[in-house]
Design goal:
The protein has helices at 22-32, 51-58, 75-85, 102-107, 131-139, 175-199, and strands at 11-16, 38-45, 62-65, 90-93, 112-116, 144-151, 161-168. With 209 residues, it is an alpha/beta fold. It has two domains: 10-109, Rossmann fold (3-Layer(aba) Sandwich); 112-147 and 155-203, Formyl transferase, N-terminal domain (Rossmann fold, 3-Layer(aba) Sandwich). Strands 3-2-1-4-5-6-7 form a seven-stranded mixed sheet, with helices on both faces. Helix 4 links the parallel strand 4 (90-93) and strand 5. The longest helix is centred in the C-terminal third of the chain and has 25 residues, at 175-199. The radius of gyration is 17 Å and the shape is globular. The two termini are 29 Å apart. The structure holds glycinamide ribonucleotide. The site of glycinamide ribonucleotide has 18 residues, from helix 1, strand 5 and helix 6.
């Protein structure tokens, strides 16, 4: 008798977001339409006013404001417990402006993705987020920018790059016009990268154990 091959496991996702959460929404929408075969579980934000939390609530998944103010003594442990309670396989940082604690990074080594609004390794690092990135790209006279999905290590924006998408800068490009173009690119790149992980086309060592 031939053995049935096991269907690939549906990966459970956690998101960390500090702001609007449009990248989060792109993933939630892709999962809801079955364009992406992954299972969103929980959104965590350091910012109680982050619209990303509302997006999580509207999608019917766990949505938590955890910060050093809400949990001055046990923030990392609270976050870790929440990830374990939801049996999270993969973490996606979608505009999260804090570093994850060492223990969380250790437990989820090779299983934390970040989206950055530029072509790393250029225009990354501490303090490089949001419009500041696009201001730096325009000020440098760059001909191209883009988006990068990478694995997270203990520094800002330095882990191994998984995927990138490029766009040219137009004449008269402003940081604001570039931000809008790159954000649309980010949404597609992030969903495409997750699709490749879901299908096994992109193998993450951290998911193998
Ligand atoms: C995105 O542009 C993301 O790349 C950026 O924050 C924005 C969040 O937008 N992240 C960084 O700059 C990380 N260094 P969103 O809340 O609408 O998804």
């Amino acid at each position: 008798m031939s053995q049935m091959s096991q269907p690939p496991k549906q990966l459970k996702l956690a998101f960390f977001a500090s702001g609007n959460g449009s990248n989060l929404q792109a993933i939630l929408d892709a999962c809801a339409s079955s364009e992406l075969d992954m299972s969103p579980q929980v959104v965590i934000s350091n910012n109680s006013k982050a619209y990303a939390l509302t997006r999580g609530q509207l999608a019917g998944i766990g949505s938590h404001h955890f910060s050093s103010k809400t949990h001055p003594h046990n923030l990392d442990q609270t976050i870790l417990n929440t990830l374990l309670e939801h049996s999270v396989d993969l973490i996606v940082l979608v505009g999260y402006m804090k570093k994850l604690g060492d223990e969380i990074l250790e437990r989820f080594r090779g299983r934390v993705l970040n989206i950055h609004p530029a072509l790393l390794p250029e225009f990354g690092g501490h303090g490089m987020y949001g419009l500041k990135v696009h201001q730096a790209v325009v000020a440098a006279g760059a001909t191209h920018s883009g988006a990068t999905v990478h694995l997270v290590d203990s520094e800002y924006d330095t882990g191994p790059i998984l995927s990138q998408a490029r766009i040219p800068l137009s004449s008269g490009e402003t940081p604001e016009s570039l931000a809008a173009k790159v954000l649309a690119l980010e949404h597609r790149l992030l969903v495409e990268t997750l699709q490749k992980i879901a299908s096994g086309e992109l193998e993450l060592e951290g998911l193998k154990t």
